[in-house]
Amino acid sequence: MEKKSKNIKAEPGAESAAPAAVETLLVSVPLTPDQIEDLKERAAKAEENWNRFVRQSADFENFKKRAARERQEAAAFANEGLLLKLLPTLDAFDMALAAAGTDPASQSLRAGILMVANQLKATLAEAGLEEIDATDKMFDPNSHEAVSQRETAEVPEGRVLQQVRKGYKFRNRLLRPAGVIVAKKAAH
Q1: Residue 5, pLDDT above cutoff 60
Q2: What pTM was computed for the model?
Q3: Whether 38 and 99 share a structural domain
């Protein structure tokens, strides 16, 4: 069977007539079963391609959002490595203050160490460093590290008896857990 084609000339101002003419052309030319099957296959392929395009567009949008979130997080936590390296320095200041004790002869040395330590702590706090205070709190494995247990009847089991090493958070992310001694029930 031969396909008949009609030449349709659009007249100026007859843009809306063109779709109707094409529809008339499609209706007036009968399609063979092979042509109908071919059109169905092409429609299925077009739908498959459209669905793939929609999925890839969604995947790309998700990728852009994830990349932006990762960039923001990287910028927010860029100083984390530096702060980790400064934690031993903070520990050294605490040890120096403890070593200076209350001896009247070392009071000026103690005052100088305290000024420098406070200045460093203030600067680091501005950058987002936060000290974890574990003293007299219940043991929390998310922010405390139990270095030992001590039997006692004076405080409830699981409470922090002593903080051995300070813990720190950086913008609510744990940098170093506080080293603590935890109370346990006294043996009778």
Answers
A1: no
A2: 0.61
A3: no
